[in-house]
Design goal:
With 125 residues, the chain is mainly alpha-helical. It is built from seven helices and two strands. It has a two-stranded antiparallel sheet. A hairpin with a 2-residue loop joins strand 1 and strand 2 (15-20). The radius of gyration is 15 Å and the shape is globular. The protein starts with 6 loop residues before the first strand and ends with a helix.
């Protein structure tokens, strides 16, 4: 399965900022589904995946270093980075509007690490 997230990264000094790219309609997404997509959720997932990659590749020491560079707090970095651990199909459903959810609710949820439990939690298989 391939998931396309229409975002681009732009450098601002030493920081990389997630920018919205021109909207590209996914082949499977209807206009109704696309209207249910929360752009803040899409941005947070992209940030989480990027920050997780930085941590995994040891380009940053820890979440505190990311927070310092990004100008935010460590707790927020930790919450956003946990979104990278979502099952790929859950991410795809959030990004293409089949699973409408606001960022605040998504960050409040205690998301299990097990993908099967995530699917049950979010109403999937």
């Amino acid at each position: 399965m391939t998931t396309f997230v229409p975002l681009r990264f732009k450098r601002h000094g030493v920081r990389k900022v997630v920018m919205h790219a021109e909207p590209v309609e996914a082949p499977s997404a209807s206009k109704a589904e696309a209207s249910r997509v929360d752009p803040l959720v899409v941005k947070a997932i992209a940030q989480g995946l990027y920050w997780q990659k930085l941590l995994h590749e040891h380009k940053v020491k820890d979440a505190a270093e990311i927070a310092r560079v990004e100008g935010t707090d460590r707790a927020r970095v930790t919450k956003i980075t946990k979104l990278a651990l979502l099952a790929p199909d859950v991410i795809a459903a959030l990004v293409d509007g089949r699973l409408p959810m606001r960022l605040q609710r998504l960050l409040r949820e205690e998301i299990p690490y097990d993908w099967r439990q995530q699917r049950q939690m979010f109403g999937g298989n």
